[in-house]
Amino acid sequence: MAKLEGQSIASSYDQLLHVDTEGGGNTTTHVSVKDGNNDTTFALTLATDAVMITSTNRLEFGDDGTYIHQSADGVLDLVSDTEIEINATTIDINGAVAMDGAITGATDITLSGELDAATLDISGNADIDGTTNLDIVDIDGAVDMASTLSIGDAVTITKDTDAEFVASILVNQSDAADTTGIISQRFDLEDTGGNAVDSGKILVGKEASFTATGSTQDSYMALHTSLNGTLAEKVRIDSSGNVGIGVTDPGAVCEIKSADQNLWLSSTSDTGNPILKFLQNDTQRAYIQYTDNSGDEFLQFVCQEDPSYMRFIPGGGVVAMSIASGGDVTFAGDLIMADGKGIDFSADASPASGMTAEILDDYETGTWDAVVTDGSNPMTMSSDAGYYTKVGNLVHVSGHFETSSLGSASGAIRITGLPFTIANNGAAYSGGGAALGQGFAISAGHAVSCYGLVNNTYIKLQVWDATTGISDMQASEWTADGAIIIGFSYRAA
């Protein structure tokens, strides 16, 4: 190739470029590039190991909208008015990456260091295998977790004034092998200013005990309330589902215990009626029982499909009164009164009062079958039914009795079959007259009466004669179709 030295290569020096120093560009020291007459210095310096675009001047590509330049000391800008495309298998960036715009179209981004961003907006799914350390998490939608949520010392749930929500929190105690006592988790209530609220606490705890072959746990949930700054347990639900109010070891589905207070049931209004409802399944009874400290029952309600009843038990397990499902009321057993059993209507029911005449111990109604007989030979009855009513020890009987044959009856006759034995004392005699008598073979002017014989269950018939007085009615005075209507009261034994 021919040398330029001694040749004519340009019509003017402006058409030539030269370096500013003899031997310029022949060392590692940069020298400027100028035009031939030294009028113009270009934005370029040369050295044997580098070409430099000086200051903030640009190296342009295609047009002035795409270029490389140093926009400030130590800052290199790659500028394009549309797009900068880097095609490489790997792009290795050793320093930090600061982006003012968005990253789009990336399939995978792998970071071995830390991602610092003022905001992070992920429109799709985010799969994070390691630990995510977040100072504050604001979640607008639902959170679906396939595994356990592990939380450190405290959980704070804030509720808007008008919002409603249901929160469920499960606390896992890692040191469950501790046998020193009760391990508990406490949820404290705070007001909107972050101040502790002493009016209530929720305490969830576990009491653990261990044997050589394994362990057992008695889990429970307890509600504590504060009185004068002192927390005290009021309600407990144990591991079996029993609820205790005022008791820490409920022995039933619901046990309420208080030394000086009663259980109140109240409606939602002053005029409403309180309701207490008990339900039972098809195979078991529903019970309401009142007992004393020794376990003796005093009142018992039993409800089942058949029969249902209510019982009053004054003590000793003896039922004094029962009310059956059909409405029947039955009295039985000793009521520990002045003289045995029954309902005492006296003003003073104490045993010392001696008001035994005012105790009602029985009530009964029914029918009785009468037979006209001489004591050994009954007559044939065509009508034998009568009614009775027993109130306490007073029995009232009545009936219409008629025969169709005398049979073998002879001598004095009587009517047998009284429903209760007449009391055995002289004051217990009682009787009455015949309301109707027919088929009698008695003399004109005679009358028939009757009375109950003490300590027996029959009625004696008497004939009254104004001349001879009273005598037992004979079978000969009662014809085959004889009939009588009677009614009188007597005192039962």
Structural features:
493 residues, mainly beta, six-stranded mixed β-sheet, six-stranded antiparallel β-sheet, 0% helix, 40% strand
How would you characterize this protein structure?
The protein has strands spanning about 15-20, 30-35, 40-45, 50, 60, 65-70, 75-80, 180-190, 195-210, 215-225, 230-240, 245, 255, 285-290, 295-305, 310, 320-325, 330, 345, 360, 365-370, 370-375, 380-385, 385-390, 395-405, 415, 430-435, 435-440, 445-450, 460-465, 470, 480-490. By secondary structure, it is mainly β. Among the domains are: about 15-80, no CATH class; about 180-255, no CATH class; about 285-360; about 365-490.
Helix proportion range:
under 10%
What fraction of residues sit in β-strands?
35-45%
The count of strands amounts to 32
Main β-sheet, spatial strand arrangement:
8-9-10-11-12-13
DSSP summary: helix tally: 0
Structural class: mainly beta
Radius of gyration: 58 Å
Strand count, sense and barrel status of the largest sheet are: 6 strands, mixed
Give a short summary of the structure.
This protein is mainly β and 493 residues long. Among the domains are: 14-79, no CATH class; 182-256, no CATH class; 286-359; 363-491. The chain has no helices and 32 strands.
